[in-house]
């Protein structure tokens, strides 16, 4: 018993009490609490900094974009002046301001030209008398196209005088000096336009490649004269050859004459509101058009916009209509494009800008309106005089000079971005020389008469088109691969497959774009039947291989460990790919006459571009797959094993467990993966920049090219002038991308939260 008592003591030893209040443990607890607070503050400050940075980017983009949508501003420049030299002058025929806004010109009905200062007291700088024949007087005036300083004066004896005013800039004693002068490009002797010597009530002129074309009217008779200048190469002498154009007589008196800059059309405004258009090459009428719908209204002023293609027709009700020649059912027709409204008073003057498709209009009550034709925008309506006035607009469209009741008043016009409007950015616009309204992005041209076409619709469409085709390829492959890797694949194989796929994300997109543009695009073009056969035969080959594998004896199938079956598909996919691409030439000969591209273009009417959306979908889909796969695979793999094992224990098959438990539980993560992949596809730059033709067109055709917002910003931002409309529209494109990403991520987060709440009980 004694020995047993020693072996089995009757009382257990008392446990030692731990002291949690020792100085060491207290210091450790304080240190951990401090580290927790520091980490919490660090994460909070980092998150707020990210949000603040995004907010600052948003406001910076908005600050650059908003000035485009502000109207024009007119400010009085100096005091009204009544210079002494103006007191005894005749009625003003023309006012003009030179490029530097320092010298102005005034031409009156007596043929007297006065040059004077634009600013200050309007001091007289020089004067000249035009060589008007004795006994003749000036009855009419016509101007060449906007931007030209050439004029034609119609005289009472049937003659015309072609005059130009020029301004020479010199720097004597390092001081800028502008010397105005009058020149006569076709000689000081007037040209006889009407052989009968009748008064010319209206005149027009145009200087083109074929020479000088003059037109004039005597009542309801229209006269036209073509002058060609020929130079003798040996003597250097220049001679003028004349050719008169025979035009029919009109029924009503002529109100205005305008000549197309290509010397194709002569526009004759006659009667109350009728326009007769003559084909100058055929010397035949094109048609008669009614310019105003209101029978009580009449045309009061007509002017041509920059380039001479558009006619701006002002009427007695204060309306202004834009017309130009466009192709119709029976050939070229004069069509009414858009209209503007000033006030209720008749339009007395229309001044086109010399560098943009904008114009300024004055009415009989002294109201001034600033408009832009293509943007269909009214930027300003403001009174500048108490009654009818004569005005001049500077070549830069930033200075206005108004003469009214013997006084001269200067104005500063601030109108930096008239060509931008919501309709011009997002709606179809009918541009000059186009047959119908269209969405067009064409920001630059070598022609000085060019108007920028800044529609963001084709760029936005191209962005969504590229993302759609990329996601069409990437989403099914990435999601299915993620589900198989996380749910069916053996762990040992998963540890090898997942890092390899994630490593694809490290491949620079510029390399992918370079590969797609130089190799993939021509290869796809040469193997179109094989590419489509590959897309069709690959899933069929996988299903056939799976069916054949299921028919094999168990003794063979059990030799492959669970989760390693996917390795058997590698030779199957390679064989299917080799078969599809190897048969491409034979398929092309059998079904498409030897050239599938020509078959698509000629037989189906589907345009084909080598660098197209199919190439973008293949290349960008390859780049997007790792993003979607990695996040979706983590979401599926993170589903608790207890849910999977519980479902299997209750009798569900692995497939039922996958579709009804695993995927539903992982759906928030899968949806987030898709949204992140879509965001990557929308913002991708280098692949679409190098793998597409960069053509901003709106066509869902998979064989056509495209241009995205991001690629457009990358291409054109280095070429844009800082602060210009083009520059700000590019910032607007960046703002659209940022807004789209923000809206898409916000919607994705809301949907993900709802999915998480819905399936949280599983």
Automatic annotation (TrEMBL):
InterPro entries in UniProt: MetI-like (IPR000515), MetI-like_sf (IPR035906)
Subcellular location, principal: membrane
Keyword hit for Ligase: no
Matches recorded under Gene3D superfamilies: MetI-like (1.10.3720.10)
SUPFAM superfamilies cross-referenced by the UniProt entry: MetI-like, Putative isomerase YbhE
Ranges where the record places region Disordered: 1-22
Domain ABC transmembrane type-1: 460-748
Topology within the bilayer: Multi-pass membrane protein
Alphabetical keyword list: Membrane, Transmembrane, Transmembrane helix
Residues passing through the membrane, by range: 38-61, 466-488, 500-520, 526-547, 568-592, 612-632, 661-682, 727-748
Compartments, as annotated in UniProt: Cell membrane
Protein name per UniProt: Phosphate ABC transporter permease
Organism: Azorhizophilus paspali
Lineage: Bacteria, Pseudomonadati, Pseudomonadota, Gammaproteobacteria, Pseudomonadales
